[in-house]
Design a protein that fits this description.
The structure holds 2 protein chains of 2 kinds. Chain A is of the alpha/beta class. Chain A is 32% helix and 23% strand. Chain B has one domain. Chain B is globular. The chains are: A alpha/beta, B mainly alpha.
Chain lengths: 335, 293
């Protein structure tokens, strides 16, 4: 169980985390979703007591992390790949961490086996690939057999087999009643791994709901129509109380309508249709719709109104390109 | 990696799980493991010992040559500086390596923390011991203990290898002389204090290059400038600052022979060096507790 209340972190004038409150419950996998620079890693460092909050508080299993006398059995964290000295072997690194808690070398061997690192355990970490570094990070997180697991972008750098392994591992650990808090910038990853999702953007919580509700709620059915009589159809659709927006190259997009309904309105108005396509909103669309205003670094849209399901009247010029150095964006690149 | 995609097996709950918690002796053990599992630290220790013994041997050889060359013997007897120092002593030959050894030890002390910041290891360390300060004290204990042991070993070896040459010239160390014993003990204390000071500077600066550059300046460059300045002119404040410099003050506990009025008493001097180390460690502890990692 992780509870945050009014948690804030400022780096100078820059606000990385802005009064967030959330609860991560045991027995389920909670995804922590947001674009790069949204404050995910900062929030996780605050949970682990590595950064001091500027305001608010966060507890793990009822206490601030630093007050636990056996922190590694309370929380296992993968905060970034290779928080490891490159001159030590994987085995030595895990021994060093285990020694602080009196965890046996038997357990060190177990987590090495569990993460499939047997063949490289005696090699220096400096030569590890990103994927092996990630496995070592997960091994370190599991060392204390913790009640709560914090995994920051755990599938980064893993091959497809590794990704599948992480998903299975995470599901399995949650099944044992553990609290799992897993961050990702990929909606699809969270959708397949997590039960519950907390979406963060620009340091603020944008959504905190079951993954299913996020997908159902934020997705809208759109029907794309192409017609030489756009103005006439537009008028007819609006008259029927539907929302219409301009799509790509002269198409119209009808929001929350059935294809049949649009076809009937067109027929009733004597409008010729060249195309009538229901467009299913994807998970990515739902995610984009939520975080559209809160991405830190965005590319300019290539053509007007190209956003799949995101075009719900986003106000004016999008987010300002923020060029200040942002400590929260160094997701694992800080070596 | 064959067992990768298979369903993970349960983590056996160990019967000893009740005893799994952080204690200070365990943090010390962890820091000791960190120390001895890095080639850089092991090499630094070896180099320090070789350096100290080698320099003693070199000085002993110079003594030997001087003693067997009548012209040099005469020169030494007539050199006023040499006379003022009461002649060359065996204890000086044995302890002389500290000057270079202190640089290696400074690197050892600083590196024990800066390498954690540069590699990101510090996050793993503080995740395992989130109270942080026990990590600092454990590191202090490890670097100071290692320094004491390596200095004792180096002094013993230096005594051993220089003995034949010093003995031949009647210059062997005299352990019944309290001053010579103080110089030997002082060498150990001096280097241990340098190690502590360097750890403090390492914590404060976090970057390896910055910490080492600062330590070289404090331990080597600044004293050199002041030595030149004191010899160049008789300026009061220069002499005052000079005698309170960490190394100049600390070295008094190693020096033998007639005392100079410009410098502190041996134990006074050592107390000044120790005060610098304590100040650095207190500042380091405050910074460590407060800072983000």
């Amino acid at each position: 169980m992780i509870e945050a209340h009014g948690l804030s972190k400022h780096y100078g004038a820059k606000t990385a985390v802005d009064e967030v409150s959330f609860t991560v419950r045991p027995g389920v996998v909670t995804g922590f979703l947001g674009p790069n620079g949204a404050g995910k890693s900062t929030t996780m460092r605050l949970v682990m007591g590595l950064d001091r909050p500027s305001g608010g508080w966060v507890t793990v299993n009822g206490k601030p992390y630093a007050q636990h006398r056996s922190p590694l059995t309370e929380v296992g964290a993968l905060l970034e790949a290779k928080a490891v000295h490159p001159g030590r072997s994987a085995y030595q690194h895990l021994r060093v961490l285990a020694a602080t808690h009196g965890i046996s070398t038997g357990r060190v061997d177990e987590v090495i086996e569990l993460t499939g690192l047997e063949s490289v355990a005696r090699k220096r970490v400096g030569g590890f690939s990103l994927g092996m570094g990630q496995r070592l990070g997960i091994a370190a997180a599991l060392l204390g057999d913790p009640k709560t697991l914090l995994l920051d972008e755990p599938v980064n750098g893993l091959d497809p087999e590794g990704v599948l392994w992480v998903r299975n591992l995470v599901r399995y650990l949650a099944g044992q009643g553990r609290t799992i808090f897993l961050s990702s910038h990929l909606m699809s990853e969270v959708a397949v791994t997590a039960d519950h999702v907390i979406v963060i953007g620009k340091g603020k919580i944008l959504a905190d709901m079951p993954v299913k509700d996020l997908v159902d709620g934020a997705s809208r059915r759109i029907v794309r129509v192409r017609t030489p009589q756009a103005a006439a159809l537009d008028g007819a659709l609006r008259a029927a109380g539907l929302t219409v927006q301009q799509g790509d190259d002269g198409t119209l997009e009808v929001v929350d309508a059935e294809a049949a309904q649009v076809g009937e309105i067109a027929a009733a108005g004597g409008v010729v249709l060249h195309e009538l396509t229901p467009v299913a909103s994807t998970l990515e669309d739902a995610y984009m719709a939520l975080t559209a205003d809160s991405v830190e670094y965005r590319t300019e849209a290539l053509s007007g109104g190209a956003g799949g399901g995101a075009g719900d009247g986003t106000p004016g010029p999008a987010t300002t390109a923020d060029t200040t150095a942002d400590p929260t964006v160094t997701e694992g690149a800080d070596r | 990696m064959s067992a990768v995609a298979t369903t993970p097996r349960p983590a056996p709950s160990t019967p000893a799980a009740r005893n799994v918690r952080v204690t200070f002796p365990r943090v010390v053990r962890s820091e000791w493991l960190k120390f001895r599992t890095l080639r850089s630290t092991v090499w630094t220790v070896a180099i320090t010992v070789v350096l100290m013994v080698g320099i003693s041997l070199m000085f002993a050889a110079i003594v030997q040559v001087a003693a067997s060359t009548p012209e040099m013997q005469e020169g030494m007897a007539q050199d006023p500086d040499m006379q003022a120092a009461g002649g060359l002593r065996g204890i000086f030959v044995i302890t002389v390596g500290y000057g270079f050894a202190q640089l290696a030890i400074a690197v050892l002390g600083a590196l024990s923390i800066t390498n954690e910041y540069s590699s990101g290891m510090i996050r793993s360390t503080f995740a395992a011991e989130p109270r942080r300060l026990p990590v600092l004290w454990a590191k202090l204990l490890v670097v100071v203990t290692v320094t004491v042991v390596l200095t004792v070993v180096a002094l013993a070896l230096a005594w051993l290898v220089t003995y034949p040459m010093l003995d031949a010239n009647g210059l062997t160390a005299d352990l019944s002389d309290p001053e010579q014993v103080r110089a030997l003990v002082g060498t150990v204390l001096y280097l241990a204090t340098i190690a502590a000071l360097s750890l403090g500077v390492g914590v404060l600066l976090r970057h390896t290059a910055g910490a080492i550059a600062t330590l070289v300046a404090v331990l080597f460059v600044v004293p050199l400038i002041f030595t030149i300045a004191t010899q160049a002119g008789n300026v009061e404040w220069v002499r005052t600052v000079n005698k309170f410099l960490p190394t100049v003050a600390g070295e008094q506990v190693i020096s033998t022979g007639p005392a100079s009025g410009d410098l502190l008493e041996p134990w006074q001097g050592f107390a000044v060096l120790a005060a610098y180390a304590v100040a650095a460690l207190v500042a380091a502890a405050a910074a460590l507790k407060r800072r983000d990692t």
